Amino acid sequence: MDRLWTNEYGNIPAEISADGTVVDLLETTVARFADKPAFQGLHTNLTFGETDHLSRDVAAWLQTECGLVKGDRVAVMMPNLLAHPVISFGIIRAGGVQVNVNPLYTPRELAHQLRDSGAETIVIFNQVTPTLAAILDETGIKTIVTTGLFDLCDLQVPNPPVHELVAKRSVPLPQVLRAGKDMAFTAPQITQDDLIFLQYTGGTTGLSKGAKLSHGNLMANINAFETWVADVTTPGEEVVITALPLYHIFALMVNFLSYFKMGAHNILIPNPRDMDAFVAEWKKWRVTCFTGVNTLYIGLLHTPAFAECDFSKLKVTFGGGSPTQRAVSDRWKALTGLHITEGYGLSETAPIATANLLNAPEFTGTVGIPFPSTDMKVLDDTDQELGINEPGEICIKGPQVMSDYWGKEDEHDSFFTPDGYFRTGDIGTIDDRGYVRIVDRKKDMVLVSGFNVFPNEIEDVLAGMDGLIESACIGVPDDKTGEAVKVFCVRKDDSVSDADVISFCRANLTAYKVPKQVAFVAELPKSTVGKILRRELRDAS
């Protein structure tokens, strides 16, 4: 494609520098914004300077008590609490590799991730310690640090108890901080090639794999993102609200690290599923930036009190993680004045590969154009490059792309093309201006009488139907057509029938794409980030 998308860049540079490490980022930012509030959680603020001092104490304790050396893996299993950035920066500046763990994991999932990563230390939220207790003896964990809901907070409220088996072998975070304050810290020599995160993929098609992300990968994406938003960003004056979990690469790179570098005040939301509490917190702030996935935007739009928030300072709203539907963006713009700026990325790309320009006048229906220094092409099943608007597998090369999956380095050639492009597994197209449209995942495509049907298209159409809140589409076996389309719908009330859904689809879709089966459900299965889990729907059908 010869980077034809750079013609769209305007004043955005086609190439970006990935100089430095995240430790350098921390030190430079703290020197610039030391006394400004950096993070807010549960009615308490931490300044940039306090974050620096506390993370140094964590790093010193890890070195002294755990013998942590550069490259050792440390698992972190907690929601968006005030302690999270302190712990993360502590691990990073000590040279550790942070293994991000979903706190809602089952014992089986946790055991796999701990064993696969080889982590010997875990920092874990008190309330999920029963999960660790169930599999602790199956892992190599030697050191456990527990964190409570109110650690570092002004609120003097007792924390929930730790599981008794874990309590016998663990150290509470406040004790770590007290001890670490008096311990010496020796900063290791960290380079761009050193790992910073093992970011595990969702594992929806099997055991999850750990993407090996380096300081250079993150710095490349942070610097590219900074140039992307430069025209609407004022360092030291931004307020970003973080409802997406910090263990997810989207919030980790954008909300945490990028907006930290910009000197933003970061409002942490521990439990966005409590939509009323989330909205009540939003009301306290004049938010300038918000990131979310499609289902999170839907949830806010269906919370009546959200309309009472002040959107006068809101400058950017980013959508990613799963396709953003046009109808959702239209409703969001009607309320806030901004459409949702959609982008695309993966854990393996740290994460942003493409994004729409912030000055785009409307919702484009695409995931935008490739980021600076990023190459992208579309391949068919024989690895032949396809042309403009021809659908095939999206493949990506750039400084933000991982080197390999942890422990699967000998399988490199199955994940990358011979010329170094990462195979995403996503089907998409690139148009004559370089705009990328993701059609669907390879594995989710439905084959109806030899015709390809992509669930995203069906779901996007149903998002515009009155009476429905959300829907999901899968393929089911069919004697005549091989597979048929089945949709699962969450409706506002019982007035919508399956015949209504089919009729609406017939008016908006060609015949072979129209659902043959409609099921109404109270809710759709979702990941903790809000992605609809079609696999669970298939398993239940």
Describe this structure in words.
There is one protein chain. The protein is an alpha/beta fold and 541 residues long. The protein folds into three domains: 4-15 and 217-441, Rossmann fold (3-Layer(aba) Sandwich), CATH 3.40.50; 42-190, 3-Layer(aba) Sandwich (Rossmann fold); 445-540, GMP Synthetase, Chain A, domain 3 (2-Layer Sandwich), CATH 3.30.300. Helices cover 29% and strands 23% of the residues. The two termini are 41 Å apart. The model has no long low-confidence stretch (mean pLDDT 94).
CATH architecture of the largest domain: 3-Layer(aba) Sandwich
* Strand residue content: 15-25%
Please give the order of strands in the largest beta sheet.
2-1-11-10-12-13-14-15-16
Count of helices? 16
How would you name the CATH homologous superfamily of the largest domain? Answer: ANL, N-terminal domain
Relevant terms:
alpha/beta, 25 strands, GMP Synthetase, Chain A, domain 3, 541 residues, 29% helix, 16 helices, seven-stranded mixed beta sheet, 23% strand, globular, Rossmann fold
